[in-house]
Amino acid sequence: MGRPRARDIGLVADGLPTGRHNAITDVPGVMVGHVTLREGDGPLRPGEGPVRTGVTVVRPHGGNLFREKVRAAVHTINGFGKACGFEEVRELGVIEAPIALTGTLNVGLVADGLVQHAIRESPEVGIRTGSVNVVVGECNDGFLNDLQGRHVRAEHVRAALDGAAAGPVAEGAVGAGTGTSCFGWKGGIGTASRVVPRQGGGFAVGVLVQSNFGRPRDLLIRGVPVGRYLQPPPAGGPPAPERGSIMIVLATDAPLDSRQLRRLGVRAAAGLARTGSHHGHGSGDFVVAFSVAQRIPHAPESLTREETVLADEARAMEWLFPAVVESVEEAVLNSLCRAETVRGRDDHIRHALPVEEVAILVARGRGGRD
User: Fold this and answer.
1) Which end of the chain is more exposed for a tag (fewer CB within 10 A), N or C?
2) What strands lie across the sheet with 135-139, from one edge to the other?
3) Does the global pTM surpass 0.90?
4) Nearest alpha-carbon partner for 139 in 72, 206, 190
5) Domain residue spans in the chain?
6) Would you tell me which CATH number, out of the four given (3.60.70.12, 3.90.1200.10, 3.90.940.10, 3.40.50.1980), belongs to the domain 13-299+310-361?
7) How far apart are CA 298 and CA 131, in angstroms?
8) For residue range 298-349, what is the model confidence (pLDDT) as tens digits?
9) pLDDT in tens, 163-192
């Protein structure tokens, strides 16, 4: 069965109900795909290995995103990162290609893979119509991985896209999370979802994270300062400096425009804070948010068209905001709980979080409180 999710061992407080899979794929139509690259052991050979990296893709729907775009927004919590494609999303408020996550120096190669995919699906790109904007986020996996090797290539992007599926999502040291760390432990991919009550619209909110942030002593779970009592074993490398990153992909079926989606993205920072994050000076903390409620045609037949919009934004946001905060917090905890120990280059090691010990610490720290 593998390692448990955070909710299975009491590390998540009661709140809004989850979706069926407690994953970003609980938002209708959303699909996730991973390609994980692990090869070689021992000393770092720059450009050759060892390899501990990968790519994760999120498809807002299974159709042609260039021809049927979705409303979107991006939010920068702290901007120490090499994200690709954000400015056009800020300007136009749509996403027109699958979202990809990877390791830092792979960004250009992954972007090229997404462009190739868009051209295969829409041969008119750059010829009979405009170019395509691709969105790639990254975290630095160089503690475990041969960063200079840039081992993620277009064929890996294509495989992740072809393998993207709805339903349960693989978490931990997979895809873009293969080589990343979280609070000094092994981090990686995590996901979670919430369903808003009917009086708030009955909408779904789903989150997927690539976690790579946090100092060991700062880990906070259900208000218990776990990091003060539980430190990772030696990692075989220098102590982690005050930096780190996280990529957050946020999906919903609420009919939100780009301004409203950015408002959801801002609230993601509150979910990170609940895990102990301080958004360090050298951290790249970014949110990409989208709504599947509307499909925006690339070539509309008329100047105007009808769309469903929120008639009562205040009532919807009263529920959507906490749904985002809870989902981000739980997704980060899932990235920790599900990740197994990984040994990488130069015998650097990131240990799996000892979930049984953590569950005991949290139960004791809460003194029996629910």
Assistant:
1) N
2) 31-39, 51-59, 99-103, 135-139
3) yes
4) 190
5) 13-299+310-361
6) 3.60.70.12
7) 12
8) 999 999 999 999 999 999 999 999 999 999 999 999 999 999 999 999 999 9
9) 999 999 999 999 999 999 999 999 999 999
